Amino acid sequence: xxxxxxxxxxxxxxxxxxxxxxxxxxxxxxxxxxxxxxxxxxxxxxxxxxxxxxxxxxxxxxxxxxxxxxxxxxxxxxxxxxxxxxxxxxxxxxxxxxxxxxxxxxxxxxxxxxxxxxxxxxxxxxxxxxxxxxxxxxxxxxxxxxxxxxxxxxxxxxxxxxxxxxxxxxxxxxxxxxxxxxxxxxxxxxxxxxxxxxxxxxxxxxxxxxxxx
Length: 213
Prior knowledge:
The protein is mainly α. Helix content is 69%, strand content 3%. Strands 1-2 form a two-stranded antiparallel ribbon. The chain contains seven helices and two strands. It has helices at residues 4-23, 32-59, 63-100, 107-113, 116-144, 155-175, 178-181; strands spanning 189-191, 197-199.
């Protein structure tokens, strides 16, 4: 259960990288490639903290050791929420700057931005993000109260705020898969003559095709 939201969060982080490459890297506070390195790296640290905390709490034979494990788990999940909030701030800033400079976008970026399918994809991405964020915030409240807290023992809340939120993220990312709703994502990869996979931006008017992959 610890790693579930991390994999879906990684998908969201990776998608922002390609949104930046499609709409205009000049409007992003960070280079596109940094999004995956920074935010997935932060999630890995969160998983390490949560895993170490869970192991310590489960194997602890004294109250102080079990409390240490619980605190490590709580630190990991708080770190994950902080990561999500920073990501949301950067994503929101990027889209605001794209909106503000809409008259300066390339033809490809404008065509993508005005596509109905792209709008649906963005809405699904937001739904997935909210599902992940709500689950993480609930887990903070759940762990902060201790293993015997009323929140920990409330099964309906657990089902809705843990399980249902992950189902929301799964359905959003699956039903509105970028392969169909954001095909430009696959067009950013190319293989150079030396076999190195790199990043490729489409020129104005160029559409994704097998020759561009």
